[in-house]
C-alpha cells in the first residue's frame, strides 16, 4: 500500500511539475514569437505600394526641408516687393547659393488636412507654409514681377485672389 | 511506461491549454447592436517618453513618443487584439492665457500640447470593453513641421506607428510601459489593426508599406483610413480594409480617401483581402475627434463644414435634420469603426451583415444614413465579376454580350482627369463632385446610363460556364444618381428593376428601392458647398429574392429601366458575391 501510495504521489508530482514546466516554456516562447510574420506559414504580409504619382499634385513645387525651414522662420530680409496683405523679402539661403525670395501672405490660415498652394498668375509656385501664429503663409518665390497676381487655394478648391505685386526700387 | 504516459499526457494538456488561449475573448459577442458596450471593465493609462524622443528617417524635426492605452482591466493571456489609432493634422499647442494656438513643436514656453490623440477616448473605451487593447498615439511633432516635408510627414507618421508597436512589443516581455507586463502580455500581437484619421489615415497606410519592408514585419490584419488624405496614392493590398467618407467633410472635401477602396479593387488579382467603403451622410471631418469638435472648447476645434456659417439651405447646415450632431456622428464612429475591428479583427460574425451592406443602418445609429460597399476577394471565390466596365462596352467582364435597348450607356470615370470627358455627370465634374474618379490614377470606371422614356434595358449575358450562381448569396452593383441631369427628379429616389433570367426563359425581378437607399437623390448643398456629390452606393439584392428562376442556370442579368420614365445613373461593379 505504502509503495502504491508513494507511486501515486510521485505521479501527481511529475504531472504537476511537467505541466508547469511545459506551460512556462510554451508560454514564454509563444509570447516572444508573436508579432513576427515569419512565425505563421501562409501569412501574406500586406503592402501599400504607390500606384503612380498623380501629375496634378506633383506639379506643386516643394523646396527641400532646409530651404523650407528658412522660408518659414528666417528673420525679415530686404523687402523687394509688396502687395495687399503681402510682402516679398530676400532672405539668406541655408546653402551658399543665391538668396531666397520669400513671399508672405497675411491672413487667417488654420491648420487643416490639405496644403495651401500659392499661385502667381494662376500658376502654382509652391506649398504655403503656415507661420507659427497661423496668421500668414509663406512660400519661396521666383523673381517677382510688378503686376503679377497672387492667389492661394486650399487643397484643390477655388483660388482666393490676394492681389497684384509691385516690385520696389533698389 | 505508465509514468512516461502520464508525463506525455501532462505535456499534451499544457500545450493544448496554451494554444487555447489564442482564442480571443473578442471573438464571442452575443450582442448585435454595435453600440452596446462590451462586458469588460476598462482600464487606461498614459505614457510620455519625451517631446524629442523620436526622430524619423528623413524628417529631421523632434517627435514625441506619447500615447494613451485602453484595455480590459483583467489580464487574459494574449486574448486582446491590438488596435492603434493615429490622429490627423491639427494645430499643436495651446495656452491658458493666449487665445490663439500655435503651430510649433515642442510647444513654446507658456503653451501646452493639444491632446488630439485623446479625441478618440469614446471609441477606445468602447472597443476595450469588447476585449481590445487600443493605443492612441500623439503626432504633434509631425504636425508641427510636416509643411516643411516634401512627403507631407507621411513617411514619418508610418514610422511613428511602427515605433509605438515596437515599444509595446518590448513591454510585453520587459517592464517599462505604462501598465504591467501581465497586462501587456494580454495584447494579441497576432491580431493588429490600424485606424488613422485625416493625414493619420494616410499615415497608417504608409505604416503598412514600411512594415512590409521590415525583416520581421508585424501581422497587420485590419486597416481603416478615416476621412483620409491620399496624397501619395498608395494602394493597400493583402489587408482587410475599410475607408470612411463623411459626406459633409469640409476639410478633405474631395473625399480622396475613397481611392483606397476604389483603386485597390482589381489592382492585384490574387489579393485575398476584403474591402469596404463607408459613406456617412451628414457627417463632417472633425466630429469623430472630440478634441477637434466645438464642444471641447479647445483652440483649433470647429465645424469644418463652413464653421456653421454656411448656406442654411445646405443639407450640411447644422440646423438641418440631415446633418449629424457631434454625438450622432460619434455613434457612427462606434458602430462602424468599432464594428469594423470587432468583425474583421475580432471575428464577431454577428456583425457580418453590417459589412456586406445587407442591412440598413442599425436603428441605434439613427438618424444617420450610412451606405456600405463590400468588395470581397475574387481569389477566394467569394466574388464573380459580371461587368466592371473594364473597357468593352459590348462585352462584359465574363465575356458575355451587353445589350442596350431603349437607353444609352457610355463608359465614364476611370483615371481620366479631364473634367468634361471623364465625367459621369451630364455637366463637367470636379474632384469635389466626383470622388470616385481617379483624377490621374485608377479610379472607378462606370457606365453612364440614361433613358428618356420608360421600357429601356441593359442586359448582361452570363455565359453558360458561369450560370450556376448558387454558391453566391447576392447580386450587387454600385450606382450613383446624376444630380445634374433633369432626367432625375430632384429630391426623388431613382429606381430600376434587376431581372435574372434562366435557360428556360423564366425571369424574376426585384426593385432596387426594395433593398436600400443607394439610389436616393444626393443631398444638396448651398452656395460654395461641398455638396452635392456623385456617390457610387451599393445595391445588394439577396439571390433568394429572385423567386422562380433556376439559380443553377442563369443566362443574364438585366437592368429594366421601367420604374421611372426617365433617368441618369452611373453604374459599376456588377457582381455576384457571398
What share of residues of chain A is helical?
A: 25-40%
Approximate shape of chain A: elongated
Strand content of chain A: 25-35%
Largest sheet strand order of chain A: 8-7-4-5-6-3-2-1-9
Q: How many strand segments of chain B?
A: 24
Please outline the major beta sheet of chain A.
9 strands, antiparallel
- Output the radius of gyration of chain A: 33 Å
CATH class of the largest domain in chain B: Alpha Beta
**CATH architecture group name of the largest domain in chain A:** Sandwich
What is the alpha-carbon Rg of chain B in Å? Answer: 25 Å
| Order of strands, widest sheet of chain B | 1-4-8-5-9-10-11-12-13
Describe this structure in words.
The complex is a heterodimer of chains A (170) and B (578). Chain A is built from three helices and nine strands; from the N terminus they run αααβββββββββ. With 170 residues, chain A is of the alpha+beta class. Chain A has two domains: 2-38; 60-167, Immunoglobulin-like, CATH 2.60.40. Chain A has a nine-stranded antiparallel β-sheet with strand order 8-7-4-5-6-3-2-1-9, covered by helices on one side. The longest helix of chain A is centred in the first third of the chain and has 32 residues, at 2-33. Mean pLDDT of chain A is 82; it is low at 24-33. Chain B is an alpha+beta fold and 578 residues long. Chain B contains nine helices and 24 strands. Chain B folds into two domains: 7-375, Rossmann fold (3-Layer(aba) Sandwich); 383-577, Jelly Rolls (Sandwich). Chain B is globular, with a radius of gyration of 25 Å. In chain B, α7 links the parallel β11 and β12 (275-281). Chain B has helices at residues 2-20, 121-129, 140-145, 154-171, 181-184, 199-212, 259-262, 326-345, 352-356, and strands at 42-48, 54-56, 59-63, 66-72, 80-86, 93-94, 112-113, 133-137, 187-197, 220-226, 240-246, 275-281, 369-375, 383-387, 402-405, 408-413, 445-451, 456-461, 474-481, 497-502, 507-511, 537-542, 554-561, 567-577. At the A-B interface, α1, α2, α3 and β5 of A face α1, β9 and α6 of B.
